[in-house]
Amino acid sequence: MNVSNLLARTITGIVYIAVILSGILLDSVMLIGAVFAVFAGQANFELQSIVGINRKRLMLKIVHALMTMLLFYVIFTSSIQGVAYRDFLILLLPYLAYYLFYLTAELYRERSRPIYEVGLAFFSHIYIAVPLGMLMLLCVDKGTIMDLEGNVSGMQRTFWLLPIFVFVWLNDTGAFLVGSKFGKHKLFERISPKKTIEGFVGGIVFTLLGSLAFYYIFPAVTTIYNWLILAALVGVFATWGDLFESFIKRTYGVKDSGNILPGHGGVLDRIDSILFAAIPAFMFIEIIVYLK
């Protein structure tokens, strides 16, 4: 990696982290929601480019990406604002209309593998919009969050996004540092030749250490065992999320999902880990940490 590329990668990474942390630390659900919506639309557009969905239909490709944002918005709005059932159906109506339109349109497109096209199209929505929506589902009042000194945290709604993202970043950092220094045994050579078992273990160790820091700073939130389990879940699934996107790109002979983020590729390259980690993290927090 040359110096200019490293500099671009560093600056892009700092901006990305700053945007996420700004929304979390300001406890701004709307800012986080807006950022995630943009991520959802752009990541879907990139995924369509990778697998060849709507390749020669730019407008349909754009609309399909916008529908990812709409599905995310429905999840976000219904969870955060607690809309009535009738209003929820009204919000969902445009997406359902689009869904029927897309299926009907396949009757006239004369594709060689129409079911394959439909499957890829709506898998792209589930793969991207649902995990990001689950993160927004965590942004509801779960009681008062206090630090070790008994002070009320300024992150009453966005708190749980902080450890999830920090654990993902620690896992990436640990895997890179340990893998670069000590990596000898390939983790999944068929999909990602650069990943090593040593790097994977290093990432998990960094994540677990991060969980101890969270327990020290916020001891009243949950037990140390829950922090350790949450960190382990995020670390393992974040790695699988990265591998899964690499699997998609390798299948279609693509190096990066896009070039919108200098030094990092596309948005999907940046959020692939969180798309997998969000699901077990959400389930663990909702079912175990807040089990009544």
UniProtKB/TrEMBL annotation:
The keyword S-adenosyl-L-methionine does not apply. Its EC number is 2.7.7.41. The keyword RNA-binding does not apply. It catalyses: a 1,2-diacyl-sn-glycero-3-phosphate + CTP + H(+) = a CDP-1,2-diacyl-sn-glycerol + diphosphate. PROSITE patterns: CDS. Pathway: Phospholipid metabolism; CDP-diacylglycerol biosynthesis; CDP-diacylglycerol from sn-glycerol 3-phosphate: step 3/3; Lipid metabolism. Pfam families: CTP_transf_1. This is Phosphatidate cytidylyltransferase. It comes from Porphyromonas cangingivalis.
